[in-house]
Amino acid sequence: xxxSVFQTLTPMDRFKGYCSFLYRALQANFxxxxxxxxxxxxxxxxxxxxxLIWRYVYAHPSPRLTISRTAMFxxxxxxxxxxxxxxxxxxxxxxxxxxxxxxxxxxxKPLDFQFLQMMQALxxxxxxxxxxxxxxxxxxxxxxxxxxxxxVEDFLAFLVxxxxxFIIQFSVLFLFIQGIFYTNSSYGIxxxxxxxxLTFSGISAPLTLYPLILRHIGEWLPFQNIIYVPISxxxxxxxxxxxxxxxxxxxxxxxxxxxxxxxxxxxxxxxIEIQGG
Amino acid sequence: MxxxxxxxxxxxxxxxxxxxxxxxxxxxxxxxxxxxEVFAVxxxxxxxxxxERVGLIGENGAGKSTTLKMLTxxxxxxxxxxNVLGRIPWxxxxxxxxxxxxxxxxxxxxxxxIPVRETFQLLKTMYRIPDSTFNYVLHEALHRLHLxxxxxxxxxxxxxxxxxRCDLAAALLHAPSIAFLDEPTIGLDVSIKEQVREFIxxxxxxxxxxxxxxxxxxxxITQICKRLIVLDHGxxxxxxxxxxxxxxxxxxxRIIIETKAPTAPAKIQQLKPALAKLNAQLLEIEGKRLVFxxxxxxxxxxxxKLLLKKLPVVDLSLEKPDIENLVTQxxxxxxxxxx
Amino acid sequence: xxxxxxxxxxxxxSLQAKMEYKLDFLIGMITSIMLQLAALxxxxxxxxxxxxxxxxxGKEVLFLFGISATALGTAExxxxxxWMLPYYIVxxxxxxxxxxxxxxxxxxxxxxxxLHSFGNLLTGMVLLIYxxxxxxxxxxxxxxxxxxSFCGTIIYTSMLVCICSLSFKFIGxxxxxxNFVHSLLQASRYPLSIYPNWLKYLLLFLIPFGAFNFLPxxxxxxxxxxxxxxxxxxxxxxxxxxxxxxxxxxxxxxxQSTGT
Lengths: 277, 339, 260
Fold this sequence. Notes:
The structure holds 3 protein chains of 3 kinds. By secondary structure, chain A is mostly helical. Chain A contains 11 helices and no strands. In chain A, helix 2 (about 35-60) runs antiparallel to helix 3, helix 6 (about 115-145) packs across helix 7 and helix 7 packs antiparallel against helix 10 (about 230-235). By secondary structure, chain B is α/β, with parallel strands linked by helices. Chain B is about 40% helix and about 25% strand. Chain B has helices at about 20-30, 65-70, 95, 115-125, 130-145, 160-170, 190-205, 220-225, 240-250, 265-275, 300-310, 325-335, and strands at about 5-15, 35-50, 55, 80-85, 100-105, 180, 210-215, 225-230, 235-240, 255-260, 280-285, 290-295, 315-320. Chain B starts with a strand and ends with a helix. Chain C has one domain (about 1-255). The radius of gyration of chain C is 19 Å and the shape is globular. Chain C has helices spanning about 1-20, 20-50, 60-80, 85-90, 95-100, 105-110, 120-135, 140-170, 175-185, 195-205, 215-220, 225-260. Classes of the chains: A mainly alpha, B alpha/beta, C mainly alpha. Chains A and C meet through helix 2 and helix 8 of A and helix 2 and helix 9 of C.
């Protein structure tokens, strides 16, 4: 017996809804794996050039080179793998749905759009994570780097940090993809994010090697929290309070970026409605 | 005179990759390529003279599109011969393309970013269309398909119906000797379908072009075509005029009568021998309504006489299945084998 | 002649259509410059740690970056639509190119120029001008640079066509295959002498990006290979067009006999 015409979702219903969505997304990902292997292969190849360049540098170093070879060849494979694990197709997915006008049906679902998309991204990341884990082990062994984290605590902190990095990365993607409501240039949207990511996340080299100005700018952007900070934790660069401070810092970025995405999306939807698009 | 299209024992098979389900399956498919050969078109022969208007029908997967693609030179046949306007399509595709027009209803052909007007101008250069032809067809298209307001719109902003009309105009712009129209009216409103058909007929009348139309909407065929080719699972099921098609498949006719009161089963039993003599049978009984089916038109008077005499008839009508019904019947028959 | 007219008018009208989106153009251009700058940032970091890269100073490496950027810029500006070919195959849209009385490949290549890649061209030009004037290069080098760059455009596009044609048959239509070519072009921005031998020879002979980049650079800065280094680019360009055409014909034949 229903006592009201309107049905409301209990938190439990919502939770079940999100879970079933996540399960479906995982299932769908399983079916399209062969293309993911190809994606992994091509990213490995293109990252190989970065590694080869650094290999040359370590064969002909200048006295200025302070980072040890073993450290560098943990950093680079880890940066690659972390980046690959966090590379979700979420921006392409959302972009396509917006362009095809499917976004309307998504918004009709009684679940939060942003959170659903994060579940989708989580399922992407989940697979990429295991794929890249194998790559990491092989790469570090090949490059004679140091495979193991500095300590067990560091490793646990690293896992937390990666999860936060995932939220930050997702929120950045979610923010940028909304640009598609305002311009047709999907290239501009994805490439501008990519260029910032390449410059400020520390994907191709530890940020300590970058010019000071860039590092100062980077402090004000979320990108270093995606790659550089988690890896530094893995490699035991932070101790005690500094470690906690780094995690809290990341947490604030994650929360801030997620909420920013939420508000901007709300605002975007309203302005779109007014335009009648 | 040589026929415009001459198809001789045409065959085409597709390779279908066997893929086992699941992750392991996709992995296996990635390294090995086991495949099954499936006939898309199997030993088809027909000739079409210039100026003929032919409808090509069949269910999904019957081989219509494959046949069309081979006729236009997009696909290479496995075996058999094709000759279109004296050329072998897949060998001389580009020369042939100058003389044929093609519409693939489900896909837009026009360039995505360019306004329709520019595309038409481009086609004029591409096909070296003389001014008189260009102006005539364009005028007809603007007039009959109401393209005027669409001319300055980029193709990607057009709706499906608008794009289809533009596609059709583009395909007929050079007054091709043969026009291949694959589903030219798919997804269109009834009124627009009508406009499209009129436009096709007009161009056909003016330039006496050969028309090959594949469609799921049989009205396209009954209105435009004189001849029908039915494909089924890659084989030729029927080739002849619409009239012949009706005669061959529409031999069964129906008499539907309505009686004053529901007919008793015993009475029907009594009727049976007489009906059998006339090759007729009771098909349906539904309260006061009775439907009889019989084979040949010759029996109509006698059967009517019989029914009028034996039953309290208040209303009587004769029904001849139309083409649409016939085609669905043909398809259905395959699915349900005779008992 | 008629065909050239057709290609020109396709190109012109697509260009006009793209011009209407000024904001998109602006954003795209700025971001392509930003991507180039990100790559230069890494170069700065690397040079800082190892001042001579395979015998090249940082400013000499800028020449390689410049040529690559202009070659890429021109290629995307003119022939970028090849990147859509995998989608064409998946969607069965290649058919629609085959019903026209023109060869499908040039038609495909030019039918959607990417305007914002002008940003790449611009960055490349600035780098080249800076580099050449810094080293006080003689006038004939300035004259040769556009030639090398355009050869680069041709070789890069040809390689994309080659990979596409091969993927008709072997791998399946994925854009990933093309990304591979793109990252090789990125790799050729560093002196090939820093790479292990297999990659060096790959980039010199098989996918000859070194021919318009590394070899001319050696000719200018290190007087290596002499005139051979200066003139090898057009030879490789002609050769790669020829190979690309053969492979394309072969790939198309495969497509036509298997269908979709």
